[in-house]
Amino acid sequence: MSQGTMNMNNTHNSGLCPCESGLVYAECCSELHSGRVLAQTALQLMRSRYSAFTLGNADYLVKSWHPDTRPASLTIDESQRWIGLKIKTVSHGGTDQDEGSVEFVARYKVQGKAYRLQENSRFRRLDGRWYYLDGERPG
Ligand SMILES: [Zn+2]
How many angstroms separate the alpha carbon of residue 1 from the centre of ligand 1? Predict the structure, then answer.
């Protein structure tokens, strides 16, 4: 029975995408991070931004931020270790729409202590590309 716990410790080595799509990273957010593929929906962009956070890819986070609200630069807090993403609600943001929002819960650890971040993120399309506009914490 102790083997079960052993296996669980190895799951982060399996190459699965951090956005929890169930796909391997190379066939998921990697394509967006490299710029080979553009996000088709607000949800896809949201997932790729979460992955970028887990991988410390600040460059991608800045580039996928709407020019109206984009920070000049972004520093990723390296003590934050992202451990999970759960999508709660998606409204609009489809392939034929220009605005949308995604409510999600992301979990992370700092020095072994777990936290959760709940946010309703807004996305807007500009010249055919999806961008993160802003987010608010419910409650
Ligand atoms: Zn992904």
Answer: 32
CA distances from 86 to 57, 104, 118, 119 (A): 20, 6, 9, 11
In angstroms, what is the span from residue 29 Cα to ligand 1's centroid? 4
Structure confidence at residue 129 (pLDDT): 97
Q: List, for residues 43-77, the tens digit of each pLDDT value.
A: 999 999 999 999 999 999 999 999 999 999 899 99
Global pTM value: 0.87
What domains can you pick out in the chain, each with its CATH number? 8-136 (3.10.450.50)
Cα(2) to ligand 1 centroid in Å equals 31
